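Quick one - inputs below.
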Amino acid sequence: MAFLTQIQSARKGIMTPEMKKVAEVEFLEPEFIMKKVALGHIVIPANKNHKNLVPMGIGRALRTKVNANIGNSPTSSGIEEELEKLSQAIKYGSDTVMDLSTGERINEIREAMIENSPVPIGTVPIYHVLNQVEDPMDITEEMLIDVIRLQAEQGVDYITIHAGLLKKHIPYAKKRLMGIVSRGGSIMAKWMALHNKENPVYTAFDKILEICAEHDVTLSLGDGMRPGCLKDASDEAQFAELEVLGELVKRSREAGVQAMVEGPGHVPFDEIQMNMEKEIELCDDAPFYILGPVVTDCAPGYDHITSAIGATMGAFHGAAMLCYVTPKEHIGLPNARDVRDGVIAYKIAAHAADVALKRPHARDRDDAISKARVEFDWKQQFDLSMDPDKARAFRAEAIRESQDPSSAAKANDPQPESCDGMTNTDEHFCTMCGEKFCSMRISQEIGDVE
Amino acid sequence: MAFLTQIQSARKGIMTPEMKKVAEVEFLEPEFIMKKVALGHIVIPANKNHKNLVPMGIGRALRTKVNANIGNSPTSSGIEEELEKLSQAIKYGSDTVMDLSTGERINEIREAMIENSPVPIGTVPIYHVLNQVEDPMDITEEMLIDVIRLQAEQGVDYITIHAGLLKKHIPYAKKRLMGIVSRGGSIMAKWMALHNKENPVYTAFDKILEICAEHDVTLSLGDGMRPGCLKDASDEAQFAELEVLGELVKRSREAGVQAMVEGPGHVPFDEIQMNMEKEIELCDDAPFYILGPVVTDCAPGYDHITSAIGATMGAFHGAAMLCYVTPKEHIGLPNARDVRDGVIAYKIAAHAADVALKRPHARDRDDAISKARVEFDWKQQFDLSMDPDKARAFRAEAIRESQDPSSAAKANDPQPESCDGMTNTDEHFCTMCGEKFCSMRISQEIGDVE
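Output:
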């Protein structure tokens, strides 16, 4: 029998091991997963050549997923650094990882990542093409197709292509404060303007679908027109492209290719719900994979926070996967610490939305850690927390400072060193209230006096 | 003429300098402020004895405010540490500061804070009373009144009292996973149970109102029953108390005392809107002063993030002031670094809500920093950011790591040291994309090729 992609299998009523696995970890029925994959409302990015992959699903019927972008830039980082970032991202719970390398050894880094990753790996193939040319304007359709084929064969699970940004959309971007802030989008737009031709990824879309179907590469339809600041959010540039993405979703599904859609960017908090609903409508409920969105432009150094706020709101209103933003967004390439901070902020956002949406068993962990808190079971509290190392280190720091208050006075103290934090773990209080005024202990004593 | 509080003045149509100042900084009409103060929908916490105060207003018609809690505990921190925290909180934009000290030199710390603070200072008087007794169960109504009078005379601008938690509410708390997590609330509840008497702050409420009216101390009606975990949110304990707080708001206004209401705590994201609406209804739009709320229990070490998410949603739906939560919540007493991280996270939340609610000029700063970003004006970007020191330090770190990639590989790197970050400020790219693939530069070049 010929190879079938997940969506092709689902349509034929063939239950794949991948669908079963997704059903199991999501506490849902396999038949439900199969039905949703057939409709394209759930994607399972699982390239047949990615051998050590643990299958996972993306869709708003499922637990909210988190992606971490890593990868080097021409000015920063080598293969060891990127594998360290991969390991940090997976350790802290990233559900997929995108390799956005644009610098040296791009092919090797990608191969090493796929080999070392149990989670789906995504890429932006145009970055590899850029690596092959002196001037981005020398890109050709053939180069793009060749790189997509190469990456499909290597085992890349999903690829971002900027096929929805058409020549006719360019004038919209000129009305903006920030123009086009997507790397792929800006290059495609300049290329179209220079050569006076339509977007080559759009014109070659059928060829790309063919390659994707052959290996079951999921398409992540990039938003080259994503707004780069609050002022540009929800404008005609963004929504004109989104309409095209809706058509491409349809064409992908018809070709047996799984597709998701990428979303903004920078969006004021009050416009997030509308943005989610619009995608669901225009793209027939293709999984929405959003970047943030950040809800204010003016907190560089804290964009993991500005965007975790927007991401929670987005997931609550229908986004299926959240692409993390690190504290170093708008400033420079994230290092391993930034990757960790970004992933944790997004695990919080995703989990908060899952709890709010009452997804199966989502709140179990909250109830368990709260029970441990009441019982002063510090070990259990640490073990159940999203970043046990950080929680332990903070408690150790607090205990140290309670013995030497002057060490607490310095605002620019480095983060506390990682340690086991297990000193005094049997104490029935913390340094916040101290023993005498511990509300939880006092609250528990109320029963004794009656 | 006898002394009049802000609300008494407003009712008589007397425009105070404080109301004018609030109108000016909020870009609103003085008459509007006066009307809202008269109704109690805006409070201006301004004790007549707080000499160096710069008046500010709290209410959902105004810019969202942020409060930072500082103060020592019996196990931690002295007067110098607390003044350093005060300075950090004000530097990063805290609109009010609460001194929650429970440890040594409690009276001196408070006096020093009031003397050094241009922003309103709040307290929880019961903490001082606790400081005077061996056993919290020995507290008397007289002690409470004496301390409230002392603090009113010292110039405290607002005080939290737990007057809404009544004896009949205690059984509700026993149905909870975490019981009573408010320090003041748990002590009051145990006291009532032990002595079989009604809440002394409730029975002495008229006497307290008299003292507050004499100095214009604003009441912050504490929620002793605030939920301490998601499971306990929005339960009968919480809302039974909220109803009493609504009655106390009415009594405060009748006595010429300004009043706000404190809110949760731990609340799932989907229940936040309902919680805000309920307060507005039950408490006749008294400014709602909320703590977070955190939207997941399982991220100790990151509770500034879990709660900034909830705080944004809360402010968007009507909260007037956000009490920050630091990364060290649930673990220990915050140090100066934690105070900074907490304040910035909350300035982000408050600002995001102000932008979303389209408050006058709220988005100006976002537009200005985005313009600076397009123009590669790094100095302006830093100057306009919420934490210029952090942004500069991150850029310096990114540049350093681009020259020595191995330094970027360590996940537990300390925070970058503060530095001027101004090396290479004229570069038209950042280390994230590098020069060749800078989307903003390429986007700007599109015009040139047409």
